[in-house]
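Input for the complex:
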Amino acid sequence: MGRMKDFKRFMSFVGKEFNHILRDTRTLMVLIVMPVVMIVLFGFALSTEIKDVKVAVYDPSRDAATSRLISQIDASEYFTVTAFIDSEEGVLEAFRSNSADIALVFEDNFYHRAVHDSDGRLQVIVDGSNTNIGSMAVFYVSSIVSSFQKELAQEAALNQAAAGGSSSSAEAVPSVQIHTSTRMMYNPQMKSAFNFVPGVMGMILMLVCAMMTSVSIVREKERGTMEVLLVSPVKPFSVILAKAIPYFVVSAFILLTVLCLSVFLIKVPISGSLMWVVLVSLLFILVSLSIGILISTLVAKQEVAILISGMVLMLPTMLLSGMLFPIESMPKVLQWISWCVPAKWYIDSIKVMMIQGLGIRYCLDAVLILCGFLTVITGLSVFKFKDRL
Amino acid sequence: MYSVEADNLIKRYGSSEALRGVSFRVSEGEIFGIIGPDGAGKTSIFRILTTLILPDGGSARVLGLDVVQDYHGIRRRVGYMPGRFSLYQDLSVEENLRFFATLFGTTIEENYDLVKDIYSYLEPFRKRKAGALSGGMKQKLALSCALIHKPDVLFLDEPTTGVDPVSRKEFWTMLRRLREQGLSIVVSTPYMDEATLCDRIALIRKGIFLDTDTPADIISKFTLPLLAVSGPHMPSLLRDIRLIPQVFSCFAFGDTHHVVMRPGELSLEAQINFLNTALHAKGHSGLSIKPIRPNVEDCYMYLDTLEEHS
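Predicted:
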């Protein structure tokens, strides 16, 4: 009986919170539109569509194979060969003068090495400072090269048949091999648009959960409704808990939206396990909610809550989570501070699972740290929570 | 048994003392009014009694339960209406009432007879958002929400502030009806005219009670002659009356000035003559000076001035 009543009471709280959220259409729009806009903006601003990438070529062998491959690359809509250079050092000059985005460096005697030694070497050097182009350019070059490799192999087989006459099955067809190696200049880690998605996810979830939860709890304090709620048999902490649930649902919905947009609109693959990406995201949502609750126990004005979640959460999340700048190249002190930013660990682990496609065990430390944050912050907010004014 | 007992309550906010030793008792089925201006400490008393803040000194019991030790028990059994409108503006009238009913583990239907007098005013607007109600309607809704769980004591902190005169009157009629049902009510108000509607009142000033008694007894304790003075130039008249050394206090009160002379051997007639002559000397003419019966506000002002002088 009592438990039933408690449950009913709790559910009426949750229902009330949903009403608050759903009736505040302006905030609801912000909640839904903001992540969409951010993802679309980042997605297209850092578009992975490439066209007319400027190619510089260093071709010391100047044989039939290299000139054919070069003309094939030039013919593709993605690339335009803009410069032939005389030395490997010329690559740097081409990058600096912005006359090339990538450079193809063939080795000497390329055709012979490719067909007879099965070891034609082609190096693709990418100007990493142009993050949009990098990985896609490499991808397209590789696919052109591999189809060219098949062409060469077929021709070699035909030549052999014509020359030897007896196409005995005992004699193996020479395998044509071109080895493409890639070198990134200026940005070896290749921070690209893909890497932005986990960053945006971390930022949005932090913003929605922490800011919205804290603001909505503080609003009750400010409007005086908390006073009425306290003078009732309801356990004050369940008031807070009831607030967290609708925002958890909203955040889960936003997570879904962001993931769908990333996969279908800007075509960021989820290379790792979707289940773990979602689970770790839910864990991060819980951490953010607990931060929101902690903020709400500390302040009495909505503006202060917004200020704290804005300044104290957003700024470090943007600057220190590795979303904009690589943490590895920051001063030691900032690196230490970045360890205190939950979003850093979340973004790290999502990068590992989503972009690099590695399993959960490669980011277990980050996940455990997030669990630690959750425990400590929840504990703190329970401790700081006052059931009086 | 008393519904509310407060003994020497003290509350400090930093260096300022909001309550400087307040004691009173509220009997069962009594409307107890706390009368005083803003900042006198009324809200602090309510918040201590509803267990929202802790007193810095003294003790208080509500329904025999200690406000510090047994606050859970008190919260279950009292109804509280804070000074500001404290309902959810974005929820409808009905949703608000239903929410507060569920909060206390009851339903609107179960306790409908308790609130029906009040709620019947609101029923035509039950789908309307609470934020879109008029001031009087808001107060009625807040009272309904505070009553829906059948509390034993009702704490109403300035329930009629910012409410139109008609709604105020209706509101007090409701309170008196609730009292007949045996509910104890502690209510505060800055409006002195509402004081007479209470069974007993306490006049509060800067954190202490000037007096606690029935309104009639408080008025009967005011034994000095009270004069209502009016004339063609009221503002300068007020200033000039106050400059007369023999005047104890003078306050603008509607369209007259209420004057109390320093206690002396002058009879009422002599006081009127004295005042008339003194004001004529200052250039006032066409004055009307007559004795009147004091009301609660006069008592408050007198005690207030007395306190100021000491």
